[in-house]
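Lecture 7 notes: from sequence to structure.
We start with the chain below.
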Amino acid sequence: MSISNREILAPGSFSRHLVSRKRKSATRKKLLIAGLSLTSMVDMFSLLVIFLLQAFSTSPELLAIGKGVTLPAARTGQEIKDAPVLAISEEEVYLDQKLVGKTSVLLKHPAPLMHHLAQLRELWQKTHPTETFPGEINLQAHKELSSAIVAQFMAMLPSQSYGSIQLAVVAGGT
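Predicted structure tokens for the same chain:
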């Protein structure tokens, strides 16, 4: 209801206009409040999704297979533990998805690999000062790689306190 100059003001028409205007603004305020509670719910769900994505991204079940590495198949196996991943392909070696060097060079001169392993151990010890280092590492070796090469890399690991070596395989082999 709007009041124009041409209309004759009847007694009480202006007060009715003010009452209807107040009701409209009260309705708008209620809608605004409902919108705010919906926003907070969406924020809560967004935080929940982010939390779940971060939780599963560090989960050992989502272990990334190194570049150039095709894992051998096996009938039996155990659940993967959360530990650093050493991936050995025919040409390159990766530690936690970071290139360490060429496989043939590291077999002759393992110092860069030893340095990276020592850094990982020191970082773990800094973040867990009251615990003893478990020495666990996951080893991913390309299935066509010679067992002698894999054994040479496995022999290097205990010198840096990595004595618990887990070989990664694909489940469902023959």
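Points to note: Strands lie at 73-74, 85-88, 92-95, 98-102, 136-141, 164-167, 170-171. The two ends are 83 Å apart (CA to CA).
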